[in-house]
Structure formats: C-alpha cells, structure tokens
Write a structure and sequence with these properties.
alpha+beta; five-stranded antiparallel sheet; 7 strands; 36% helix; elongated
C-alpha cells in the first residue's frame, strides 16, 4: 500500500483491552516503512507510551469516519447492484489499491458485484471503518519531529528559565520536559523559552563581567 494517501481519516491508538486511548481525524500516508502523515505523527507519542506497556501496539484506521457503519453498508449495497466486478462497482469509496486490498482480505475481489451478499458488504464496511494495524516501533530520535522528556519543569524558574539547582544554568526548548503536537507548538515553545533564557543568561553574564 506504499504511496496511498488518505484524507480526513480517523486513526485511533488502542490500549491492551482494545479501547481507544486517543483518536485523531487528519490525513494519513502509507509509506515504505509504515505510517506517516499528520494523523500518524499526532498518535506517535501515545504509541510510544503504550509500547512501554505492551508489545506491539494496535492502531485502528477508520477510512470514512463521517459515515456510520449502517449508512456505509447501505451505500455499498446500492453500489453493488451492478454486473461489474465488485472492485469496479465500488470505485470511488476509497483509492483503488486500498479497496482492492480490503476486498482481498475478505476474498471478494473476484466477485461480480451483484453476487455480493448484504452480509459480505457489511463485513467490508466493518473493515473500512475499523482496519487494525500493528505497530512494533516508531522512528528513533534522529528522525523524530518532536521529542519527549528532558529537565523537569519543577527544577526550572519559569520567569527566567534558570535551573533551581545550578545558578547560571539556563534551559530552553525541548531540553525541557515539554512537548506539544506537531504543527508549530514546539517551535513556539522553543522561541519563547529561548528568548527568556537568552535574555536572562545575558544579564547574568554581564553582571559577573563587572
């Protein structure tokens, strides 16, 4: 499925009991290594947290979150009232390769559309709205967009960004134990804390120089 791009899907990270921990409705990209795109990036920190508890972690992909299972099933049944091959009759619901993949999972890819039963199409709707993907790891630090962890905020003076343990030592950005979602929040935090720490570090340095 490498190269398949999906818009406005919902990706959910599941806990050990199969319940959603977090879900994001954004775009997703299948790549040569696995999942990427905004939805995958948003979910990655939660995946990392779960990987400490369980190996592997399951994420659930809802390709058409705006449609209920019942509504999607009815639309599939209506579209399947055709003498075309089922993949052709259902063109337009999903990218062709993804729909073919789902049909192959259910052994329906060689079926004439009108021969598909309502039960088979309901099973297809379930797969479209709840496809499970196993995650074994995320990319290492050098390829990350956001890092978690760092100096605990209780050890920092928020007005100056100076360490409470070592005078004259200042911290900024992701050296601190702060991280937000991708999309500029981390850059904003880096700029703000960098400005505060740099200003106060300069004042401290000029004080000792005299």
């Amino acid at each position: 499925m490498q190269g398949i791009s999906l818009q406005d899907i919902t990706l959910s990270v599941l806990d050990q009991k199969g319940k959603p921990i977090v879900a994001h409705t954004m775009d997703l990209l299948f790549t040569h290594f696995g999942l990427s795109g905004p939805a995958a990036l948003r979910c990655s920190s939660f995946v990392n947290q779960e990987l400490k508890k369980q190996q592997p972690v399951t994420v659930a992909l809802d390709c058409l979150p705006a449609k209920s299972h019942e509504a999607l099933t009815q639309e599939l049944i209506q579209s399947a009232a055709s003498k075309k091959q089922l993949p052709n009759a259902l063109a337009g619901f999903l990218p062709e390769r993804l729909m073919t993949f789902f049909l192959q999972q259910l052994d329906l890819h060689e079926l004439v559309a009108e021969k598909a039963s309502p039960e088979q199409l309901a099973a297809l709707a379930s797969l479209i709205k709840g496809f499970s993907i196993t995650i074994v790891r995320t990319f290492p630090l050098e390829k990350s967009f956001v890092t978690g962890g760092g100096v605990h905020l209780k050890e920092i003076n928020p007005k100056t960004m100076e360490s409470k343990k070592i005078n004259g030592l200042y911290f900024a950005g992701e050296l601190l134990d702060i991280n937000g979602y991708t999309g500029g929040f981390n850059i904003t935090a880096a700029f703000c804390t960098g400005h505060v720490s740099g200003k106060n570090a300069a004042e401290t340095a000029s004080y000792f120089s005299y």
